[in-house]
Amino acid sequence: MRCFDEQERQIVRTLIRNPRCSDNRISTLTGVPVRTVSRKRARLEQEDILFYYAAVDMQAQGTGRFATQHMLTIKFKLGITRSQIVQEIRSEPNVANVFSELIRDSYIAEVDGHIALVMVVEGESDSDVAESVQGKIIPSLQKNHGEDSIQEMQTIRLLDPIRRLHNYLPMVNTQAGFIVESWPDDAIFVE
Fold this sequence. Notes:
- The longest helix is centred in the C-terminal third of the chain and has 20 residues, at 126-145.
- With 191 residues, the chain is of the alpha+beta class.
- The protein is globular.
- The strands form 2 sheets. Strands 2-3-1-4 form a 4-stranded antiparallel beta sheet.
- The relative contact order is 0.15.
- The chain has 2 domains: 1-53, Arc Repressor Mutant, subunit A; 56-186, 2-Layer Sandwich (Alpha-Beta Plaits).
- The chain has 6 helices and 6 strands.
- The protein has helices at residues 6-17, 23-30, 34-46, 82-91, 98-102, 126-145, and strands at 68-76, 103-111, 114-123, 150-158, 174-175, 178-179.
- Helix 1 (6-17) packs across helix 2 (23-30) and helix 2 (23-30) crosses helix 3 (34-46).
- The mean pLDDT is 93.
């Protein structure tokens, strides 16, 4: 287990508030010397603890590209392993193009002793999601693991996000893509 020291906590809290902060700005805000900020930030990145990415809201309040999201749980029959799923993902040509449009998030999971995929699929309508799942995602999984590979599938229609990445509460503390300045530091989870 990797425990943060107090300087790392300050650096990470500042980056959670605004991931675009420069090392100089972090130093000014935290009082941690800029060379220490640079060194510690680089180490957190090299250790694959700190990640940066841009998220585009494709729902109605964002670009309006998609009107609905469904969370799917696809449970595989016994005997299909995590490593088989990982290998399939690495070799599936649609992962890079078609599935990046359909699937917002996806995870390998375990459900009642079975390997499962959990994914959030976006679409223009509920029927559009069903068409994508039945016409593209399921056939791809069956092609790679056999016609009888899927034991069960559940779907839940998602309405609104409440919390993301521990600290981002879009309805409460996020404005223009950042945590609002008035949000207290001790309410930002870092441990």
